[in-house]
């Protein structure tokens, strides 16, 4: 994606193929002498046993500018899962720690929070990330929080350095950096972004012309990227959704808690490959259909929290607008794929947007039935107010 285009509200940091890893890492070493970086790796037991995780650990062994690595292990009910994860991250030394969210110690801490009225009873990536943020917040020297997924097939340190540097360098003034990249092999991937989110945002811009939040979302090239970095302050004040709305919900919190001038997006790599979800057209509670519904209800609830009135006619209109724009997108993607010698299955793409169109109104029904939805996990400022020493006890609970 080598170009110079700057978006409307936020800064875009392009990959112009001129950066050198050695210079980036030397700059990061100098920049982090005082302000440390904490890296969050949310991982499941299955992803921990997959080949990409071993590659990630190998690459991180050379990233000596990272002070602390919090491996937040979820969907891992067996002690053997935890022990195997500890063995796999052993090459990273004492700076890496496994936070076993299914373990007795962490579960006991969750129960304490629930008793105090802080809902953390929904397992998933959101809770894993939130827990790791709390672990890092217990160290006052960590100023930059970085997160990336653990199923990245072609992971390397260049990706990590480009995600860290916009936040860590003292000459730059950003509070949040979102990743973007091309999801391409012999075909285009990223169906939810290409076929749902991108045309949906255009439809939302037509429907809610005065919405500053939708305009903000429209600036991101890959809103669902699982990789981002942020300041200690935002890690403390942002609430975190516990469902598939995590990425969009995070952007909503950033929109709410900081200036758009302090937000950027960075092109991390030429190509990005990780595992792919199934569409699950026959099961609305799984796969990409479930993801799509969660994303849309998160957007609807965010708009409602900003005073936008949403009714049945709104969702019907939005669906019609989305369908027309998505069909135009398919024509554009087909041309792009043809010129770039990529396989393109236009029929399956059409079927996908028809399924996503149903989600537009289905998510509207879910929103009207439950406008508030499942509560986002409260921010760490509230936890500190309720239980002042909780983050420190969380850190102690991860000690072997």
Which descriptors apply to this entry?
globular, 400 residues, Glucosyl-3-phosphoglycerate synthase, 16 helices, 8-stranded mixed sheet, transferase, alpha/beta, Spore Coat Polysaccharide Biosynthesis Protein SpsA, Chain A, 8 strands, glycosyltransferase, glycosyltransferase activity, EC 2.4.1.266
Give an overview in words:
The protein has helices at residues 21-31, 45-48, 51-60, 79-88, 104-115, 125-137, 157-168, 191-207, 212-217, 232-237, 246-257, 287-305, 312-339, 346-369, 380-386, 390-397; strands at 11-13, 36-44, 68-74, 96-100, 142-147, 176-180, 228-231, 263-267. It has 400 residues and is an alpha/beta fold. It has a single domain (11-393), classed as Spore Coat Polysaccharide Biosynthesis Protein SpsA, Chain A, CATH 3.90.550. The chain has an 8-stranded mixed sheet with strand order 1-8-6-7-5-2-3-4, with helices on both faces. β3, α4 (79-88) and β4 form a beta-alpha-beta unit. The longest helix has 28 residues, at 312-339. The radius of gyration is 21 Å and the shape is globular.
* Helix/strand/pairing category: alpha/beta
Q: How is the largest sheet built, in terms of strand order?
A: 1-8-6-7-5-2-3-4
Distance between the termini: 44 Å
Report the major sheet: 8 strands, mixed
* Domains (count): 1
Q: Classify the beta-strand content into a percent band.
A: 5-15%
Q: State the helicity in percent bands.
A: 40-55%
CATH superfamily: Spore Coat Polysaccharide Biosynthesis Protein SpsA, Chain A
The low-confidence parts are none
